[in-house]
Amino acid sequence: MSSPDRANPVSGAQAIERAIALLEAMADAPPRGARLKDLAKQVGITQPTAARMLKALVANGFARHDPGSRGYALGLRLFSLAAAASRQSGLKRHARPWLLRLAHETRANVFLMLREGADAVCTDRVDAGVAVHTVTGMIGGRVPLGIGPGSLAILAFLDGREAATLIDINAAEFDRYKGFDAERIRHGLQAVREQGYAYDCGDLVPGVRGLAVPIRCRHVGTVGALSLGALSESMPDPRLPNLANRLMEAAAAIGTDLNPLDPALNRPDSYHLADDMAGC
Question: Long-range pairs for 140-146 at CB < 8 Å and ≥24 separation?
Fold first, then answer.
């Protein structure tokens, strides 16, 4: 006799996808967490289903429940998993000294962005003592490739066909950001390629400027980006060339030290990306 999972494998996959969606919804919740009804609505499932899944997540440490506020938030076990994932990659280890050095030299917040599928994820950051709001937020925040200077620097230096496919994949996501769409992202790539860096003058977050360059690994290509974020008055136009050159020096040094077999650098092959996505 076949097991329930084998008899109905789709239900198991759906349960995993819904649990992941609940975790992502809790990540966007306020500090005291989100209520059951709000999480269920956001994920698109019934409250009884959400309650069962949340109970299992709480029991296993992936979520926590505050009886006072009746809110659900991410659990501490996720921190241990994140730490384990970080240890598997040498990228963060090689980049960390450069982030510290750049934050001290530039007096700007420094971010390490890594490509993950069609997104860019903030895998590390060092703040220079200035509160600067960014679209990625804290470590672990993600944006679709093309939004923000870090992810734009990654996108611009991928294979042309791969970049075009990723823009099509993320087209609907771009609409979430005021003033951005697929056409604007597509037209902006050539300027980034020509100058060697991506720049945001405050279009994403008013009053905050960003600058980023790609990180490339031999035999792998573009895998991430180094990015600076600072208040507009701290990053005037005359500073941009020097800041960009310093970022390029750091990115080149980091890329030279990377192991092309590092599992964190794996990414879809550029010539098969469209076929792989179509088959999902």
Answer: 140/27, 140/82, 142/116, 143/119, 144/118, 144/119, 144/120, 144/170, 144/173, 144/174, 145/115, 145/118, 145/119, 145/120, 145/170, 146/170, 146/174, 146/180, 146/185
Phi, psi of 160 (to 5 degrees): -55, -45
Domains in the chain: ranges and CATH: 4-78 (1.10.10.10), 88-278 (3.30.450.40)
* Helix locations, 196-239, DSSP H: none
If you search the block for the tokens 């598997």, which residue do you land on?
A: 88
- Cα atoms in the Cβ-side hemisphere of radius 13 Å centred on 77: 9
Quote the CA–CA distance of 71 and 83 in Å, as a whole number: 25
pTM: 0.67
pLDDT tens for each residue of 194-209: 999 999 988 888 888 9
Instruction: Provide the terminal-to-terminal Cα distance of the chain, rounded to the nearest Å.
Output: 29
User: 31, 138 in Cβ contact below 8 A?
Assistant: no
Distance of CA 115 to the CA centre of its chain: 7
What's the farthest any 2 CA atoms get from each other in the chain? 73
> In whole angstroms, what is the distance from residue 37 CA to residue 169 CA?
30
